[in-house]
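ASSEMBLY PREDICTION REQUEST
Request ID: AP-0331
Submitted by: J.K., bench scientist
Number of chains: two
Total residues: 600
Priority: normal
Notes: Please return the full assembly, not individual chains.
Input sequences:
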Amino acid sequence: MSALRMGRRLPRRTVPRALMALGALVAIGFVAVNVAIGYVVIDGRLDGQWYDVRDLGIGVQELREWLDDRNAQQPGILDFLGQHWISYAVTALLGATGILSIVGGALLILIWVERRLIGRMQIRRGPNRVGPYGLLQPIADAVKLIQKEVLMPRGADKVLFFLPPALIFIPMIVAWGPIPWGAQMAYLDVHVGILFLIAVSSLTTLAIFMAGWSSNNHYALLGAMRTIAMMISYEIPLSIALLSVVLLSGSMQLSTIVEWQSTHNVWLAALLPLAMFTYFFSSTAELNRTPNDIAEAESEIVAGFHTEYSGMKFGLFYAVELGNALFVAALTATLFLGGWSLFGLEEWIPGYLILGAKISAAYFLLVWLRGTLPRFRLDQLMKFAWQFLIPLSLLNLLIVAVEASVFARWEVKGIVSLGLFAIVNWAAAIILVREWARRMGYRPEREAVRQPILTQGVGGLQAARRLGAPEMGTQV
Amino acid sequence: MIPELFGRVGVLIVLGVVFPALPLIASFAFYLLRRRPQNPDPVKHATYECGVESEGNAWGQFNARYYLFALGFVIFDVEVVFLYPWALQHGILNTDALFKAAIFVGVLAFGLAYAWRRGALEWR
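STATUS: Completed
Returned structure:
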């Protein structure tokens, strides 16, 4: 029994003097390096150089030119592939490896972050045993899952049962391609970016249905059918919400959309609140995460489509779920929160760090939703999609279309028109959501206000005192 | 430009196959090294339905209301595909394009209202 569990305080360790001196040195060094960077940035000496860490795309471009020059001097045997094949292959592999390592590393950390955050929200500690602060928990999980016996139900379709854990990974990783991490740091800067992302991310449904169907399990098939019904329904409001982004910015290319926000000094979240709300909620439905996880509702259908999956195959499903959640956060940050730009601050802070901070904020919102809301019923979710989100997003589309034609023709561009649009759209969003919800039968004034009842157990006592809840129950 | 981007998608797809294959191969290697158990058993490999014997095959008939929603999805998804080119060229087009798009969306909204009235949007 550890001291923590007994309720005694652990003896506080004093920090050695050498460590304090080292800390001070590191702090001074940090400040000095930052001052030097600031000097170089103001000087403009960094702009366009290959060692400009604010935008790694410039360095890759230089590498490309250097490789092309080298190849032109010494022709190789594979030159029938084209003049630039070496530089092309090298940069493509570099970018893809970068994306894969960022996403893979983020997945490892996110397993810990998510469980910790949810633990905090539910007034418990979360994983804290393996390593410092439980940081090694993901590795322990992976080792455990790899060592698990591989099971396959007798009636399953052998080939189709093995494919989905691998197939579900592809749309997740491909969807990360078009996200721009800096002005020239988009790996896959397609002109039809938004359409490409919608097309790719809907492929996840196929893998999920394959998993549910091949298990030959009633629960799994039910979960897969529910997933399809829900993904299908929420795909429509999602695409219509993204249409309004295309209308206003006039492009489907993600880098152009970010540049539009950067040049107009505005976030699309401020201009299109209803579109952002629709997009965000629809994508949480597509993710099968807790407020909308009827596809794998534990209390109803065991684990839905991955009931029969165990060991590392289950681990892959879990990882992809987290990766898709992170991708939704990234797309929200890119389309609605300004991407790598931050009102001129991108001159000073690397764009990928800004985007990372925005992704973390959006991801925290997702975790918060998961930790707060109970699960919706299937009929409620379908009703919400077809009778609430689709009509509202159609109305929003018409409003934004009028605004976009005004914006394209009006001479006074910038703050006047955009400010006007923001006011109109926020008013429209609030009125539409409120009135449509009342039309659907939402009457908050008729429901009694209930005081929260808090347990006063281990962590609950502090929370109860903090919230000023009346003292009740016995202290454990 | 375009084939270059296709190649990049291809690289990502290959990595997307290799990356999830690694832990699965590791798992298989653990089996070869006898570090993980593999003791087949008829009960272990039975279909898991909360301990109850599975009744028949899961690949049978299914509730039709799922297909109703699939029909609605097809209609609206095609609509969205038609709307994307319009949205992209909206700044260049004349003002009457706006009215034409409004009529197009209006017809679909009418269809939605009709389906709603007939109760096709209710999950019963």
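REVIEWER COMMENTS: Chain A touches chain B through 84 residues (CB under 8 Å).
SIGN-OFF: pending second reviewer
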